[in-house]
Amino acid sequence: MATILDRLINAGPVIPVLNFRSPEEAAQVCQVLYKAGMRVFEITLRHETALTAIERVCDLLPEDALVGAGTILSADQLTAAKAAGAVFGVSPGLSLDLAKKAQAESFPYVPGVATVSEAMAARSLGFDFLKFFPAEASGGAPFVKSLASVLPDIRFCPTGGLNMRTAADYLALPNVPVVGGSWLVVQDEKGDVDLRTTQKRAINISSLA
Questions:
Q1: If exposure means fewest CB atoms within 10 Å of the residue's CB, which of 11, 24, 27, 55 is most exposed?
Q2: CB atoms within 10 A of CB 98
């Protein structure tokens, strides 16, 4: 039976990175994305209502949806995200406290790295599926490509500054099974989500597979 991390790795081509202003917005957008074929949802802990948003989305979506928490910065946040219903967690970086907490709670966890040394440190702690962040500012696809020969057992989920065009460059690499995309959710001038355009983008990512 596939583990949560296996399902994340094979969820490609894009895991949506989602930043919501309210649980209501989260519920509405995630339902649209689910209907468009998305099955993994990374809801970032960047808003005070994020944990409630995770709870709401977990309640609304079918059991085949994987709802996780992004931008986890502390062990306490990891515990809170898990209690809210998140089935995986993602961080922009990695600390020893977070690593120990995730392992102690058997919580599927994807730490972030931006350098070879950080990737090696994460591997030494038992992590071999890593977020590469901020991807475009940290060397982009050429940098990730260069890691395939020296760290062949590590797979990366590049996130940060990607779009449809650059996502394809990463996904062509042997060590990148999936990328993270915040560009899927489109906002209008007022900051409200353009649901129709968002749905179209979600449907169109199948062309990247």
A1: 24
A2: 22
61 to each of 2, 37, 196, how far by Cα in Å?
20, 12, 19
- Give the separation between CA 152 and CA 22, rounded to whole angstroms: 40
State which residues form the domain around 142: 15-208
pLDDT in tens, the chain (209 residues): 579 999 999 987 999 999 999 999 999 999 999 999 999 999 999 999 999 999 999 999 999 999 999 999 999 999 999 999 999 999 999 999 999 999 999 999 999 999 999 999 999 999 999 999 999 999 999 999 999 999 999 999 999 999 999 999 999 999 999 999 999 999 888 888 999 999 999 999 877 87
- Asked, for residue 1, whether it belongs to a domain, the answer is no
Residue 16, beta-bridge partner list: 181
Whether residue 181 lies inside any domain: the answer is yes
**Both tokens of residue 134?**
């901020």
Neighbours of 175 (CB within 10 A): 19
Question: Active-site residues: which are they?
Answer: 42, 131
* 131: β partners: 112, 157
Give the tokens for residue 6. 């296996």
Residue 6 falls inside a structural domain: no
At 51, which CATH number? 3.20.20.70
pTM, two decimals, is 0.96
